[in-house]
Write a structure and sequence with these properties.
- By secondary structure, the protein is an alpha+beta fold.
- It is 45% helix and 19% strand.
- Strands 1, 2, 3 and 4 form a 4-stranded antiparallel beta sheet that branches.
- α1 crosses α3.
- The longest helix is centred in the N-terminal third of the chain and has 28 residues.
Length: 193
């Protein structure tokens, strides 16, 4: 896995992600509310920019690694140090990865979806908002989240539906309330269109 060919692939991924992030950041910056106390926090530089974080996340998925911690500590920090000179610790990377979740989702949706081959698979995973004992007093996502059931039991939150082709490429994804049935044909047809 430490081939120069994979490093070239990571570089190609970074170029396309960086182009997307440059276009994505301009309209978002115009929508942000700015107060004098927030300006220092928002413009504070991290070790890695959003496009570098997204590139490393995509490289992990396309590299055949089993877990992200091994990929980051044993491969990226060792073999990709020259390509990403601002690499931070593993814990800090995990903290930073949350801030570019929207950009990552939009990049996958608009630039990295696979082609439908005629065979598609759909599955969902629960995104829990809180523990079941705290549902009645929970105020986060009140009115938006719902109670649903998965193979692991009841939960409160959302479902992430993912549609892939037979090559494992993402065709589409959808976030719904937890009480949406996975066999809902109307929702599935809108996902695959």
């Amino acid at each position: 896995m430490t081939t120069p060919l994979f490093n070239d692939k990571v570089t190609a991924i970074f170029v396309s992600v960086d182009d997307f992030c440059l276009e994505f950041e301009q309209p978002i910056e115009q929508l942000l509310l700015s107060t004098p106390s927030d300006v220092k926090k928002r413009n504070r530089k991290a070790g890695l920019c959003d496009s570098e974080i997204i590139s490393l996340l995509i490289a992990f998925h396309s590299g055949g690694f089993r877990n992200f911690k091994f990929f980051y500590t044993q491969y990226a920090c060792v073999h990709l140090k020259n390509d990403f000179p601002g690499l931070v610790s593993y814990n800090r990377f995990i903290e930073l990865s949350h801030r570019c979740a929207v950009a990552f989702m939009l990049f996958v949706h608009y630039c990295a979806r696979g082609e439908c081959t005629g065979i598609s698979f759909i599955d969902s995973t629960p995104l829990r908002v809180c523990h079941n004992k705290r549902i009645k007093r929970n105020k986060t996502f009140k009115g938006i989240a719902a109670v649903g059931k998965s193979t692991m039991g009841w939960f409160y939150g959302f479902k992430l539906h993912l549609v892939i082709n037979d090559k494992g490429e993402i065709l589409s994804f959808y976030l719904s309330k937890a009480n949406m049935d996975d066999r809902n044909i109307k929702a599935i047809t809108t996902l695959t269109q």
